[in-house]
Design a protein that fits this description.
Oligomer: single chain
CATH topology of the largest domain: Rossmann fold
Radius of gyration: 19 Å
Distance between the termini: 47 Å
Number of strands: 12
Largest sheet: 5 strands, parallel
CATH architecture of the largest domain: 3-Layer(aba) Sandwich
Number of domains: 2
Number of helices: 8
Strand content: 15-25%
CATH class of the largest domain: Alpha Beta
Length: 242
C-alpha cells in the first residue's frame, strides 16, 4: 500500500443492495478518489473479492443470498483487508458480533459521506501501521501467558488459544506492561490508533472476549483485571496464586 495517506487510486468494494445508497456511494466515493466496485448481494461480494484485490471493504449486513456476517467471515479466512460494516441496526449485540467476526469498524445508517470517508481513511492508516511495524520481541511471556509474536500464537499454561488481530494486539500490549494500569484511552490509541472515531465499547468487547479465551472463570478474571473508571491491568500470577 502506498505511504500516501490519501485514498487516491485505492480500490474499495461496496457491498450494498439498496440502489439509493449504491448510487450516492459510487458518486461520492469516486469523487474522493476511490476506485469503486459494487456488489449487490453477498455471493456477488465473495466472488468479486476472490477475483481481484481490494484495499478496503464497505459491507452492508442485510444482503440477499449470503448475509453480510457470512461475507465478513469468508473474507477473514484469507485476508486482513480492512472491513467496515454498515448496519441499520443499533443494538449492542450486533456491534459485538460484528467485532467478534473480524470487522475493523462499523457505521450505522443513515450516515454522512464525510463521516464515512473519515472512517475509511482511519482504518486504512491503522492497517498500514499494523502491516508496516515489526514487533520488538519475538516471544513475550509473563507467568503462564505466552505470545509468539512472529507466529502470532498465544498460549495459556501451554494450551494454545486462537486470537484475532485486535485481540492479539491487546494481549501483546498488556503482556509488555505487567502490573501496570493501562487506561482505556491508551489501549484504544495503541491498538486502534489515535484517529479512531468509533464507539469505546469496542475495547470492552475485545477485553470480554479475551477473558473468555484465557480466564478459567471469565466472570471473575484473575489475569486481566478491571480498574474501574480507569482501564485494565494484567496480573502476572496464575489463578492458583502460585
Amino acid at each position: 500500500m502506498s505511504k500516501d495517506k490519501s485514498p487516491r487510486g485505492l480500490r474499495i468494494l461496496v457491498v450494498e443492495d439498496e440502489e439509493s445508497f449504491v448510487d450516492a456511494l459510487t458518486v461520492g466515493l469516486s469523487r474522493e478518489g476511490f476506485l469503486v466496485t459494487v456488489a449487490r448481494d453477498g455471493q456477488e461480494a465473495i466472488e468479486a473479492f476472490q477475483s481481484q484485490p481490494f484495499d478496503v471493504v464497505l459491507l452492508d449486513l442485510m444482503l440477499p443470498r449470503v448475509s453480510g456476517l457470512d461475507v465478513c467471515r469468508t473474507i477473514r479466512l484469507s485476508s486482513t483487508v480492512p472491513i467496515i460494516i454498515v448496519s441499520a441496526k443499533g443494538e449492542e449485540v450486533d456491534m459485538v458480533l460484528m467485532l467478534e467476526i473480524g470487522a475493523d469498524d462499523y457505521v450505522t445508517k443513515p450516515y454522512r459521506l464525510r463521516e464515512l470517508v473519515a472512517r475509511i481513511r482511519a482504518v486504512l492508516r491503522r492497517h498500514e501501521t499494523t502491516v508496516a511495524t515489526p514487533p520488538s520481541e519475538s516471544v513475550v511471556e509473563q507467568g503462564p501467558l505466552r505470545l509468539d509474536v512472529d507466529a502470532r500464537r498465544c498460549f495459556v499454561d501451554g494450551r494454545e488459544v486462537k486470537l484475532r488481530k485486535k485481540e492479539f494486539a491487546l494481549m501483546l500490549l498488556l503482556l509488555e506492561n505487567p502490573g501496570r494500569v493501562l487506561t482505556r484511552d491508551v489501549l484504544i490509541d495503541r491498538v486502534w490508533g489515535s484517529d479512531y472515531v468509533g464507539d469505546t465499547k469496542t475495547l470492552d468487547v475485545h477485553i470480554k472476549r479475551l477473558r473468555t479465551l484465557i480466564e478459567a472463570d471469565p466472570k471473575n478474571p484473575t489475569y486481566i483485571t478491571t480498574i474501574r473508571g480507569v482501564g485494565y491491568r494484567l496480573e502476572v500470577k496464575s489463578p492458583s496464586g502460585e
